Amino acid sequence: MSTFGPQIEVAIARVRADIALLHGELVRNALVVWTGGNVSGRVPGADLFVIKPSGVDYADLAPENMILCDLDGQVILGTPGSDRSPSSDTAAHAYVYRHMPDVGGVVHTHSTYATAWAARSEAIPCVITAMADEFGGPVPVGPFAIIGDDSIGRGIVETLTGHRSRAVLMANHGPFTIGKDARDAVKAAVMVEDVARTVHLARTGGPLVAIPQSAVDSLFDRYQNVYGQAPQGELQ
Amino acid sequence: MSTFGPQIEVAIARVRADIALLHGELVRNALVVWTGGNVSGRVPGADLFVIKPSGVDYADLAPENMILCDLDGQVILGTPGSDRSPSSDTAAHAYVYRHMPDVGGVVHTHSTYATAWAARSEAIPCVITAMADEFGGPVPVGPFAIIGDDSIGRGIVETLTGHRSRAVLMANHGPFTIGKDARDAVKAAVMVEDVARTVHLARTGGPLVAIPQSAVDSLFDRYQNVYGQAPQGELQ
Amino acid sequence: MSTFGPQIEVAIARVRADIALLHGELVRNALVVWTGGNVSGRVPGADLFVIKPSGVDYADLAPENMILCDLDGQVILGTPGSDRSPSSDTAAHAYVYRHMPDVGGVVHTHSTYATAWAARSEAIPCVITAMADEFGGPVPVGPFAIIGDDSIGRGIVETLTGHRSRAVLMANHGPFTIGKDARDAVKAAVMVEDVARTVHLARTGGPLVAIPQSAVDSLFDRYQNVYGQAPQGELQ
Amino acid sequence: MSTFGPQIEVAIARVRADIALLHGELVRNALVVWTGGNVSGRVPGADLFVIKPSGVDYADLAPENMILCDLDGQVILGTPGSDRSPSSDTAAHAYVYRHMPDVGGVVHTHSTYATAWAARSEAIPCVITAMADEFGGPVPVGPFAIIGDDSIGRGIVETLTGHRSRAVLMANHGPFTIGKDARDAVKAAVMVEDVARTVHLARTGGPLVAIPQSAVDSLFDRYQNVYGQAPQGELQ
User: Fold this and answer.
1) For the segment D14-71, what is each residue's pLDDT rounded down to a tens digit?
2) Which residues of B touch C206 (CB under 8 A)?
3) Do B226 and A88 touch (CB under 8 A)?
4) By CA distance, what is B32's nearest residue in C?
5) Which ranges carry the Class II aldolase/adducin N-terminal domain (chains A, B, C, D) (predicted)?
6) Closest residue by Cα to residue D113 from D176, D199, D233
7) What ipTM is given for this predicted complex?
8) Which SS3 state, helix, strand or coil, does residue B147 take?
9) Hey, which CATH number is domain A6-225, 3.40.225.10, 3.40.640.10, 1.10.530.10, 3.40.50.2300?
10) Is D207's CB within 8 Å of C120's CB?
């Protein structure tokens, strides 16, 4: 029955449980409506990842409904949930895992304020220290790309490779975020909406004041290395 | 006692339960305040629909309080709930069911952002892919019409017949949405508020970038035929 | 012990329970923060009203903590809750009850959007049908008045006497609403925030389209006489 | 085991419980996302304060996880929670306690609207009576300062010493608030976001109307001395 050996099966079970729970954070943080949005997580030690099924209620997202895929985005037949279709964004997640080996989690939402910046193809300028902490500068815009081939995944990878930001605003579409694991990518999804909202509102009230680049650098460096109870290594 | 035969009675009971539950989605998605808003659903196989009573608390919306009407909007006497007045928008719902045979559900709200566009008699431009997916282009505006005759129902039907959108912004009033069943119409009500909000906010920040028409067409086609666990056929 | 006779004591107990519960609606509808806002209700058949204590947590608003006052705003000594100070807006509520005999409930909040219009001393124009239904036209602005004498109460009474609206935006302060009973005044507080928000957002997106006066009149007339399960008579 | 004597240990236990609970108010009032924000409270009768650990989930904030520090911001070793790192803003809190002996609580958040004013380095003008009540005039802006030395604490103290406001908007960063105890500082954090939001929205709709200075003074005086069930003395 099991095809991956006991150690990998344990890892798969853990990622299934994490991914199911983390979708709850999208709801709690009001990043999604209806069945929109998706979280995926790489299975440590295997060329596999776990992702949400397509168009399913958030109330039905139990671990056994999550779908196991290989890095080409193909569903692993005979595993729990494999009778369902995976998220329609599965190809984009798979592309990221194939091309960014340090990425352990990917999140996509249409969260309101981040998507509003995306509808203008405009990067979010770095004018608050929380943004310097979390993203190390502006949150960049990715190309316009539609579902159906690798263009979304390629747009994410080309924009974020070598960039401090773990978030990209795909033009006319919405944010994709990456992280060292799924929880870290969810955090980035929460934070990109938070800074998108704050900077949007700040600018509707008048001219923004820039943060000096040296301060941005210093804040990013400290936050990545000192904040929290354990080091939260930057994805390079 | 029963006037419709056992098969129709089962169908009525199912629609009553659905309609009662679906009003909860209006609350959860913050589309309504106080007793505003209403959902109705056609009874499959009969010239009947079920709708919410007028001006009743959302906490009191049990299945037996829902009201059964014929397609002229007349309450079916002697059925549960028939001692109450149906929603004051019942005539508009009835008009839609009479003139759009493929419509199985109708929703009306005064959700904030959709109503804000309606107060300007302005269609929502299609600048985000979620909107192309769901509505296939702009969300149109319907005529100004007040309660008291068929003018609201006629405005909805004239605007949406032959249109990809399942949502219409009735001028100075608010959104009405249709769907293949009540749940599909509720989804459209949730999504029209979501895109109304995102596009409003996007435009307050600067010029919007349009999506090429060919991409809008391709997104709409894919979403209607591929997304989700079962085909979500476009109306008509 | 009881000073008002059994019939009035029953009425007092009912109003205490209503007022305690209705404060929950202010919280559920996000009209208040911390200990702000207050609801009062006239005791039918007596020159008395019940109001919230000053600066007390919303979680502590049990019926026995509500405070019974005469129409001069004086606490009735020896009754439950009379060891506490009543709301600092008690004098304004009392003034309204003294001068508007048909008013059975008064509500005051600093709800965000209504207060934003008040900070500009600007009436809310009637551009959505829900507003014509509920308020019969624009929501008016009252004078700037500060706590310490009868000027707030007088401003409310002078603005709302003979006016269709049950809500007034006191300049630089916030909304006060009246109703045939406390629940009706709470509904007006919910609705004035809802229309304040929708019309604010509508106008930030471009020019508003007016509703013809004849349609406003017709909507107001219908809503006051037809909507709901029982007639919701206009004040006076 | 205990190093402070029974009376101080009781005081520490009470402050631990308060601080753990008060973090819940930050969540309930939507002032924080993810693990952001922090509350601290001075231990009465000792040169100690209690603060939140760094980067820990709001769901994990039990009293025994709170961290006890001296007024230099050093963790008191061997006490509960001392195996964790305290909030990365601990040095700023400590600086305030050292230099403002009447301050019993400090709160820091990145609440949306207050941070939006901070991103423009703009004080919030006093145009609503709730703001005159609570802050006695405009909410001031503090200098741009980054974490790593005493510059944040010094900016808070220099801005708020001798000022009526218990809130300061640190430039490009967010609000810090002080109070006679932790609960009072949390109230100030709730109220500064509320007035930041209301005044922001008011101004996007058109010109604001100022409150006469004499009225501001009179409102502030009354609120500090009369409102509520017990005097809420102004700091210093």
Assistant:
1) 999 999 999 999 999 999 999 999 999 999 999 999 999 998 899 889 999 999 999 9
2) 120, 122
3) yes
4) C194
5) 17-200
6) D199
7) 0.93
8) strand
9) 3.40.225.10
10) yes
